[in-house]
Hints:
Layout: H1 6-13, E1 50-54, H2 59-70, E2 74-79, H3 83-94, E3 100-104, H4 110-124, E4 129-132, H5 148-169, E5 178-182, H6 186-189, H7 195-215, E6 221-225, H8 241-245, H9 259-270, E7 281-282
Parallel strand pairs: 1-2, 1-4, 2-3, 4-5, 5-6, 6-7
Helix pairs in contact: 2-3, 2-9, 4-5, 5-7
Amino acid sequence: MSKATDADEQQEQRTPQHQPRQPGLQSEMDPPPISVPAHYQGSGKLDGRRALITGGDSGIGRAVAVLFAMEGADVAIVYLDEHEDADETVGMVEEHGRRCVPIGCDLKEEEHCHTAVRRAIDGIGGLDVLVNHAGEQHPRDRFEDITAHQLERTFRTNVYSMFFLTQAAMPHLGEGSSIVNTTSVTAYQGNPSMIDYSATNGAIVSFTRALSGQLAERNIRVNAVAPGPVWTPLIPATFTAEKVADFGDHVPLGRAGQPSEIAPCYVFLASEDSSYMSGQVLHPNGGAVVGG
């Protein structure tokens, strides 16, 4: 008989819950997501590196920030207005002796993306790794109910911000730098209730592949991670309490993933361990087999 993991046990303990706003708050989740893998030991994979992580206040973004710190990196985290969650992330990073600069702003606007990069450079002294992770989603049962406002908002948060922030970061990224984008399993499988969100993630895959080709001659690698269902604040902020209770049960491994199980993918893609990879997507999704 296989031994139950912390993630398995947490799945069984999860209570129905809903948050009335996006982005959601990790501080209000029960049980809270697991940010750090059990017994994780940093080994200096990112010593001296400086990383900017959007959506870094909670969920996968928080886990990435903490693991980067454990591997020797200073980080700046961008978030919308979840100040309490961001402060918690700062404390977790600083526990590992690294700097963490919190930057609250709305990345849907181009000028805010340039401001975020400037504040990150001022706070951590440069930039070697860019993690584009911020995103939002709004389910609709009928395709006709996706309004022009929702369509533009979802694309601005998930795609436009990625363009704007990467453009702002480019003058500061040198040879050997790495860009890691977050897409989703929905880019490959689609989600009938989140068609606009699925479309943005397909765009992110294409963006990753195309940009990697252009930046290869500068020795800047561009890759992506496509998580499946993961227990983050976006889930209770998106779905009804009833759907949250069994969220993730449909995948082959039978449960939602934890941020702690996704973040090592970002460490790998940001470090020299993946020095011969660019334009690729990793798939931590609970066992779903996807093409592409």
